Amino acid sequence: NAAVESHLATDRKSKQKDFEGAFNAVRNKLMKQGVDEDLFPPKLVGFTPLQFGMERIARKGIERWGWELERYEPFALSVYDGRTPQLRSVNAPLKVPADRLTSGDLEASCILTGGDPFASGEPVKPGALSVIASVSDAEIPDTLAGRRSALADWITHPNNPLTARVIANRIWLWHFNEPIAGNPNNFGSTGKLPTHPELLDWLARQFTARGWKFKELHRAIMSSEVYARSCEHPDSKLLRERDPLGTSYATFKPRHLSGEELRDAMLAVSGELNRKLGGIPNRPEINAEAAMQPRQVMGTFAAAWVPNPQPHQRHRRSIYALKLRGLVDPLLEVFNAPSADFSCERRTTSTVTPQVFSLFNGRGAHARALALANRVLLEQAGEEQAVARCIELVFGRVATPKESSLALAHWRETLAKSERLPATEQPPLEVRREAVEENTGEKFSFTEKLYANAEFVADLQPAEADRRTLALAELCLVLLNSNEFVYVY
Predict the structure, then answer these.
(1) Collapsing DSSP states into helix, strand and coil, what is residue 463?
(2) Residues near 244 by beta carbon (within 8 Å), at least 6 away in sequence
């Protein structure tokens, strides 16, 4: 106590509640006085297990809030091209130093023996791979600045066709669910040979000749005869004889939409999709159980997944949805979304029962169906016109007389049985967490506040719609689950 009083009387910083500095200063004074370290009180003397846990959660949480605030500040992405700076802790993101070309370690580029980053071998100068350097001369400077841009110029050099061929092959894969060259990530000798090498070369030449514009490549593929072909061949027996492996593209193989495409497509037909470009990531609604599950990050609890309060924020395209390595949207996961931990050269495609549960019973699918029904009834008053409009929006074509008749009958039958549904529960404003304190090994619990949910504006709820809209929503749900919507034919 005497050492503490002495420190408070002499050090002004301690009056600013610098707890860490005060403890270390007092500890140093006791050590100079020769006091045995076994007699030192613990840093958090008198703390209960709950207080130990709350202190750690609060301290880590404050650090995380500072990092999250930076997401809303303007920034530019670039590749660091300076000396290696000294990094002693990870309490904050490392900023680009102002003296990056003069301060820090200048590491030599070496061949890593056996691929071990700690086994430096022979030093080497910047350059392209010697085995393919003859394709085009790579003039890469030996200075710190300009090496990466020179490498990029060499990769996209007109004499290097590999880059354009890889891009064309991957774009073709996304449209046909089959690549021209079997391994999109491996164009080497161990990869599968292309089934149509002349086509791949032609697409690569077209891509570079048109200024490396992806839209031009998409347009060339989607306006081609092979993309517009039917899924059925007039002579299926002859097709099986001449093309047993199905590599001729004589017919178009139906392609299952990915989870992201399904979500965007449902938002588009319901009229809710926000097509705004750019901006910070958005947080769409996901399964409530998955959103509230406890997750760990940086030695403490990660915040629960809280969707954006406003519908126009939540309903942006899936490409802008925030991706967390430890939390996968169940809708995307059931439709074969790859793990964020590894590179995925090609998504697997499956048709399994959980997909049916997600689309027919999922809260998101029901919300989109209700929004679609409400949109149509605001546009069309007549029953026949409303049914025709639903089919037109979902399938992108005019309904056949049989489809209109069956859909109208289903709507009327559902309307006769439909009842007002109870109001949907609002998102929780807090969640209770259970944990084990790492210092004491004892259990404690705390309450996590979900502040954003206090301003949550829900989509159209079943309790807010009339019976006519609810019955039409049942029909819309069936249409959104049809193969014609889920597949590209």
Answers:
(1) helix
(2) none
Tell me how many degrees the CA angle 226-197-257 measures, rounded to the nearest 5. 45
Grouping H, G, I as helix, E, B as strand and the rest as coil, residue 488 is: strand
The H-or-E segment that residue 394 falls in is helix 383-395
How much is the average pLDDT of 161-187? 92
* Residue 372 burial (CB count, 10 A): 27
Element (H, E) at 221: helix 214-222
Q: Which two tokens stand for residue 45?
A: 């003397």
pLDDT at 174: 92
Helix 383-395 vs helix 363-379: crossing angle, to nearest 10 = 130
SS3 assignment, position 472: helix
d(CA 472, CA 371): 10
Whole-angstrom Cα distance, residue 476 to residue 481? 9
Distance, in Å, from the CA atom of 24 to the CA atom of 32, rounded to the nearest integer, reads: 12
Residues 451, 429: Cα–Cα separation, whole Å = 7
Chain center to CA of 125: 37
Task: Answer whether 169's CB lies under 8 Å from 180's CB.
Answer: yes
276 close to 316: Cβ distance less than 8 angstroms: yes
Q: Quick: pLDDT tens for 40-98.
A: 877 777 788 888 888 888 888 888 788 778 777 777 766 777 888 877 766 666 778 88
Four-residue CA torsion sign, 288, 289, 292, 298: negative
Instruction: Tell me what pLDDT residue 15 has.
Output: 52
CA distance 449 to 428: 9
* Amino acid identity at 23: F
Mean pLDDT of the 222-247 span? 92
d(CA 473, CA 479): 10
Q: Which amino acid is at 294?
A: P
Whole-model pTM: value is 0.81
Three-point CA angle 322, 328, 332, nearest 5° = 95
Give the closest residue to 480 by CA, choosing from 353, 366, 325: 366
> Does the pLDDT value for residue 456 go beyond 90?
yes
**Polymer length in residues for the chain:** 489
More confident residue, 160 or 244: 244
**Closest listed residue to residue 320, CA positions, set 65, 95, 71, 69:** 71
DSSP states of 347-389: ------HHHHHHHHH-HHHHHHHHHHHHHHHHH--SHHHHHHH
d(CA 319, CA 101): 36
